[in-house]
User: What shape does this take?
Amino acid sequence: MKKNPSRNVHFSKGPSDLLDTINSSIDIDQRLYREDIMGSIAHAKMLGKQKIINKKEQTKLVTGLKEIQKDIEKNKVVFSKKLEDIHMNIESLLFKKIGKVAGKLHTARSRNDQVVTDLKLWIKSESKVLDNELKFFQKTLLNISKENVDTVMPGYTHLQIAQPITLAHHLLAYVEMIGRDRSRLKDCLYRLDENPLGSAALAGTSFPIDRKFTTKQLGFREPTKNAMDSVSDRDFVIEFIFVLSLIGVHLSRIAEEIVLWSSQHFDFIKLPDELSTGSSIMPQKKNPDGAELVRGKSNLIISNLMAMLNIVKNLPLSYSKDLQDDKSLIFNSYDNLILCLRVINEILYKSNFNKTKMRELVDKSNATATDFTNWLVQSLGYSFRDAYKLTGRIVLYCSKKKINIDSLSLKELQKFDIKITTSAKKVLSSVNSVNSKSSFGGTSPKNAKKIIQFAIKKYLK
Ligand code: ARG
Assistant: This one.
């Protein structure tokens, strides 16, 4: 039977099965094998350079660790639960491979600084994947926007039709959100980019280690400054899951819009069959399950964030085993988020927008009433409040007659003010309405074209 190297002779008995079950994390943290080996190699090289071990021992350790990595990647390794975690499993594999000299690797370090180093390295490397996925999603949004700078649709506040906008204007809002997500990820990476290796258990070490050397080897910006903080700090986990949560929230908002837009009530978007699901009882149904699941999964990520905050909040300094569960929360959040990003991206680029339907809806909703109000101000010198009141009376008149404001004749309009001219009729068109919103950040196609070019330069290069 495998013996856990962390159980020394001072134990008279092995752990109970129940303790093993609750204590073992190998099923989850084996995902960190690459980072663990990378950290161990840097540590072994540093021990050699500092003459804490000799060159021969250094070479043996490094070669052994590299071989273990190959073995794992060739599926030749069966990890053992008895050995608790990835750190102990690799140490035990190293003993098998190179014999007693393996026992020198753990000089001047602890699993406490080891695990936090591994996790930081993992986040750094996966963040590149995440950032690329985010970038790819922005690209999809920008491509659809490019084709729809003048596709008129209803813009909503309170889910009531407010003013005409374009589909590009709507989707470009998400480009901005994802842009902020990417910059938030970068900020979080900057703060976590300090190397905890060499903090040992909590107090540092009496061996003459060189932390700057491992920092450089592992690609961190600088070493952490307090060994106690280093091993107990999980702020970076919280921040990272927060970043993921907020991306999840943004995806959930798009998902919610896809659910609405694909319903018969809106009918703005047609999901392709490959992205719709059926009902087991209602033969006619096509459901947007993909989008609904994205909306739902963001809840899981938010819950993981709450769980992580709660794990840390009652822990005295420094390390406590509660922290071991950080990995399942991070991996679960990350995997779900990457999946959600890919699903939403696929739905958006494979769906067809029903331009006719969007235009029809905006055209029968008095959505240009504000444009008419603005015309009264700009052309007849009304104060905004007086113009707003007069337009209100016209809207009331229209609703009683069950017609739209844009179908009123000039004569009818002049009943409200004789000075109204044909140019007022023009502002009632939804196309003219969007064209007129040329203030910076507004929905006009001219603006959208500029913003798209700006976004391509800023985000896709
Ligand atoms: N598996 C542990 C974790 O993930 C590694 C650190 C163990 N440290 C200890 N003092 N028992 O947190």
In short: The CA atoms of residues 283 and 424 lie 50 Å apart.
